[in-house]
Design a protein that fits this description.
Elements (H helix, E strand, L loop, with lengths): L13 H10 L3 H6 L4 E2 L10 E2 L20 H5 L4 H24 L10 E2 L23 H16 L9 E7 L13 E2 L3 H8 L1 H8 L5 E4 L3 E2 L2 E2 L4 H11 L5 E3 L7 H4 L7 H10 L13 H6 L5 H17 L22 H14 L1 E5 L13 E5 L23 H8 L5 E5 L19 H9 L3 E7 L29 H9 L5 E6 L7 H6 L2 E4 L7 H9 L32 H4 L17 E3 L3 E2 L3 E3 L4 E9 L5 E11 L10 E10 L4 E8 L1 H4 L1 E2 L5 E3 L2 E8 L5 H7 L4 E8 L3 E3 L2
Parallel strand pairs: 3-4, 4-6, 5-7, 6-9, 11-12, 11-13, 13-14, 14-15, 18-26
Antiparallel strand pairs: 1-2, 7-8, 10-15, 16-19, 17-19, 19-22, 20-21, 20-25, 23-24, 24-27, 25-26
Helix pairs in contact: 1-12, 4-5, 5-7, 13-18, 14-18
């Protein structure tokens, strides 16, 4: 009786099994497995596998699945436990679909368990089309939500991964999209370690992410998908990453065709693998056979890459009997369940940010509203619910549909498109503003207007997407596109109470709406039941509690050039001006009071941690969530540091009159600064902490008519160099 080969022996470790499997492959077989469309190797019992799957806010591009709010909306929840629960639902649906597809022999793209999400780049510039895929502009918020998402995707099994998450795009990637194949992001060591890398470090060192995707661009001269600095020195050596690295799709050929750092495709592929890229999304790695014969790459480097890839597949249970893999028993019926769709709606509710509410016009009393006008190019749009990288929903509730379902039976609902999302007219033969008169009439006949403006994924997204009609996915302006501003002004001129609902994946410059509308709210791309979530807020079924994960600037003039990767004058941490709506800001239907924060120790030795505690009370008349935020400020730094930076947050729920004590740990690492050389230093000196429902900036105080309370502490001793 022949003994099982080691790679099939389930009594051995995955590491031993993977090494044995790689040792049995020919050179050509190994290289075939380093491409995203990995073919079957029948003599070894290896089935074909397509590595490319997406799950940014639900299983994407693989048919029906629950669609949650777009990532930027998820960031606005500031809700770590819910992000992890959502990711767990996504991986459940991915498993349910994967095993059903496997039973049908369907090994196609987007139908695997290696989910190329989350996107944890920093949204440093609101014009970047892919900002919608991120968790916003703050490294700490991005880190916490990224870790939660990864843990939800990968599960808590001791042996097997539920699914494999992939943190992308490593690193310093946030536009310009149209130049990404040749762009060289010049990043200082200070900005790199202070802003661009912390979320990736958390993904690797805290969450144990199993995959990392490189970026298209160069960083400081090196193409990111073949960067020794990023992939070898930082990722593998400093952070001890043991998972796999994939290129972004067709990024390897950019090395020689656009970045011009190599002279041929075999040189490009060899450079990538030599420096730690294991998998090619694209076809460049087919040239590795030629590169090997030319002496550009060794057996050892190829074996190393294939070992990492086989180890991931083994950790996913792809070489074991399904009865031995707990997640393999998840049935197809677990996909797109009703409670999953309900949770998507809950996440949408948590994500919506109330920006203005003059004279407390909201919530509306549905019993007093006899007629309501729902106007705007996004009022009855299904596509605006989803953003990019999405699946197919089994149900869709637009804002118009949500309002039609929610109002009293006798209430008249007027609908008018008002204008095209970005063109001058909605019909090809019509004159400009062909829907404006209808919108004005609808507003005049109504008791209140809900005006739905903004963007959708045809106006912001990824370079190369056929749906992106402007600037290769990036926006050239923060203004409302097309004739939307004219529509806004015409509807407001009717005098009917006006509620503006913005739907977008990024910040908009809406100063006129801020000054003239009765209420303004940001609903992002809110997922399949987004219209119901918006409607529930309008009619007071819950109190809004979302907070902005990005800064809303007043105009394009506030922004540096998009090519400039310095963080100077970017995001709330370094912005010099006064924003329209600040990071961390959002209104509620109730009111909260905060006690002055109490610090566990006023004087601490450099390297010590402390705790900050504050009591929060709901002093209003309705129950609500509140996002309690802690900001840290270094008052005596020797180099440029953030104005103040988020260092903790908790989402809590309080009934009227109820209070809760919230405690935050503040670590020595959070007190440390990054110097100009990229070193992490904890300097003695005076620090200040703020605890409240917003950041402690003057504009938030103006909007909220309340200042955030603070307390000081002193770090004593000598400077301490810390691990980054």
């Amino acid at each position: 009786m022949n003994a099982l080969p080691d790679y099939q022996n389930v009594q051995l470790s995955f590491e031993k099994r993977a090494h044995d499997l790689v040792a049995r492959m020919t050179l050509e077989e190994k290289i075939s497995q380093m491409q995203y469309e990995a073919p079957a190797i029948e003599r070894l019992g290896i089935p074909s596998y397509n590595w490319w799957s997406e799950a940014l806010h639900g299983v994407a591009r693989a048919g029906v699945a629950t669609i949650f709010p777009q990532a930027i909306g998820l960031a606005a929840t500031f809700d770590v436990p819910s992000i992890q629960k959502m990711a767990d639902i996504i991986s459940t649906e991915a498993r349910a679909k994967y095993h059903e597809f496997q039973r049908k022999g369907d090994h196609d793209i987007y139908k695997g368990l290696t989910l190329w999400s989350p996107t944890i780049n920093i949204d440093r510039d609101p014009r970047w089309g892919r900002g919608q895929e991120t968790y916003g502009e703050d490294p700490y918020l991005t880190s916490r939500l990224g870790v939660a998402f990864i843990r939800g995707i990968q599960g808590n099994g001791s042996k097997y991964l539920k699914a494999s998450a992939c943190a992308k795009h490593f690193a310093a990637h946030s536009g310009p999209e149209g130049e990404r194949h040749q762009f060289d992001a010049q990043v200082s060591q200070k900005d790199l370690w202070e802003t661009y890398l912390p979320a990736f470090e958390a993904a690797v060192c805290e969450a144990g992410v199993s995959g990392v995707m490189g970026a298209y661009n160069r960083m400081n001269g090196e193409p990111c998908c073949g960067s020794k600095t990023l992939l070898t020195d930082i990722l593998r050596t400093e952070w001890n990453f043991e998972g796999y690295v994939t290129s972004d799709c067709w990024a390897i050929k950019d090395f020689n065709e656009h970045h011009r750092v190599t002279n041929s495709i075999e040189e490009s592929s060899s450079l990538a693998v030599n420096n730690g890229c294991d998998l090619n999304c694209g076809c460049a790695f087919a040239s590795l056979v030629k590169g090997y014969r030319a002496g550009l790459i060794t057996d050892q480097k190829i074996d190393r890459a294939v070992y990492r890839l086989m180890l991931i597949r083994m950790r996913l249970g792809m070489f074991d009997n399904s009865g031995d893999v707990p997640y393999a028993s998840i049935p197809y019926s677990e996909n797109d369940r009703e409670d999953h769709r309900e949770f998507s709606e809950q996440m949408a509710r948590e994500s919506i940010v109330l920006l203005r509410n003059r004279n407390k016009i909201l919530p509306l009393d549905r019993k007093k509203i006899h007629s309501i006008a729902v106007i705007g190019p996004n009022a009855d749009s299904r596509s605006v619910l989803y953003g990019n990288y999405c699946g197919t929903a089994s149900e869709h509730i637009t804002i118009l549909e949500g309002i039609q379902q929610a109002v009293c039976p006798e209430t008249k609902v007027y609908y008018a498109e008002g204008c095209h999302l970005y063109q001058n007219s909605t019909s090809s033969l019509s004159e400009k503003n062909d829907r404006l008169a209808e919108a004005v009439s609808a507003a005049e006949w109504a008791d209140a207007v809900v005006l739905c403006l903004g963007l959708d994924a045809t106006l912001e997204g990824e370079e190369g997407d056929t749906s992106n009609d402007f600037a290769s996915g990036d926006r050239s302006s923060l203004a409302l596109p097309g004739n939307q501003e004219s529509l806004l002004e015409a509807v407001q001129a009717t005098g009917t109470p006006l509620i503006v609902v913005l739907l977008s994946g990024s910040a908009l410059a809406v100063g006129w709406a801020d000054e003239h509308a009765d209420a303004v709210l940001e609903a992002w791309y809110p997922g399949e039941r987004g219209g119901k979530a918006v409607t529930s807020l309008l009619f007071g079924e819950y109190s809004p509690s979302g907070r902005l994960p990005v800064t809303f600037y007043r105009s394009d003039r506030d922004l540096p050039d998009i090519h400039d990767y310095s963080m100077e004058n970017r995001t709330y941490r370094f912005f010099h001006g006064s924003p329209l709506y600040p990071f961390g800001y959002g209104l509620s239907y109730t009111a909260f009071s905060y006690a002055k924060p109490v610090i566990s120790r006023q004087n601490i030795e450099a390297g010590s941690n402390l705790k900050v505690t504050s009591r929060v009370k709901n002093t209003g008349s309705c129950e609500s969530d509140e996002v309690v935020q802690l900001y840290l400020q270094d008052l005596e730094a020797s180099t440029r540091v953030p104005n103040y930076q988020l260092a903790g947050f908790h989402r809590i729920h309080l009934k009227p009159g109820e209070s809760a004590e919230v405690t935050f740990p503040v670590t020595a690492r959070q007190m440390a600064l990054i110097d100009d050389a990229g070193n992490c230093m904890l300097e003695p000196g005076k620090f200040r902490v703020y605890v409240g429902g917003s950041q402690p900036d003057p504009r938030s105080a103006e909007l909220l008519e309340a200042s955030v309370l603070s307390a000081d502490f002193v770090v004593t001793g000598t400077p301490v160099k810390m691990s980054r």
